[in-house]
Amino acid sequence: MTQSNISIRIDDNLKQKFDSLCEEFGLTMSTAINMFVRTVVREQRIPFEISMNNLNSETIKAIEDVENGVGLSKKFNSVEDAMKSMLED
Questions:
Q1: Would you say the C-alpha torsion 32, 35, 40, 41 has a positive or negative sign?
Q2: Which pTM does this prediction carry?
């Protein structure tokens, strides 16, 4: 099998941490990256979740408020009851 080289840029500190962790696992960085690439090809997916969880402080507070029942309206048994309540305010 013919081998190819891949050249990537990575932060020096991150590279050192990754190299140390790979050593703890008994792997080289090259072996670990090859394991990743083989898994992606075999499973036809990235083997971990990738998300954009960039919530601002206002959204985080709103989620916490809902989870804690803060600032929620009272419950209504019907649309009519909800409409009456809104019109009274």
A1: positive
A2: 0.56
